[in-house]
């Protein structure tokens, strides 16, 4: 009867509840599942992996997550770099994280019976991997051929060696392809820069040529204006130098201007004096002023002059000729 009422054994569901509660901040600690350096979370109906709690157990270098409902590994799973042996068999994993190669201490990896098709290229970085099982996965035919079977210890070790070599080859090809793309991009960038420099140089040359042509045009205009100005000055000087020559040619017999002016002024003065004298004589002989003392003197002077002229032979001849006429 004591056995009938014995405490029932812990079921996987109860274990799962505790682990998930811990992942949510409640329940028991994962240390309760730790046996030495091995942490067994298999058959726990896990849908997610409590990475944060596992990272707090660096002593757990052996982790068993087999027989759960895992479809993917969290992005921070690769931070569990202390793992040496990892069992992910009999889950539903479709792919591994791209940085899975960060688990550099991993030596034993069991991926039996999942849904993996390809492995990440970083898988080549698992340089310490000694054992690998990829059976019962829909692997890419090339990868499946490289991996081969893992029916015993020897085959699983050979699978690890061959897959690592294959992934290193893929990584090298990928690196070369990346280098080719980078080189092509660099060459394309250099080509674009060269074309840009050529366009800039062409634009600079075009601007320089336009400036030179504009300068040459302004210089021609300046030279033409200066030549026209000099031509006008030369013509003006030539015309100015020809005016005195023309005057001298037209009046060769004329006296200098200052001498002519004095001569003309003297003639005018004599003529004026003569007219004044003649007018005085006429007034004194015709008008009633002839009895004035001044006119008496003028009339006497006039008669003396006439008498003297009549006594001169030349004047007599002139008067005689005039009388005959």
Automatic annotation (TrEMBL):
* Coiled coil among keywords: yes
Which ranges are annotated Basic and acidic residues under compositional bias?
A: 173-242
What protein name is recorded for this chain? Leucine-rich repeat-containing protein 59
Q: Where in the cell is it found?
A: Endoplasmic reticulum membrane; Microsome membrane; Nucleus envelope
List the PROSITE patterns hit by this protein, alphabetically: LRR (PS51450)
Q: Output the SMART domains linked to this UniProt entry.
A: LRR_TYP
Organism, by scientific name, is: Mauremys mutica
| Primary localization | endoplasmic reticulum
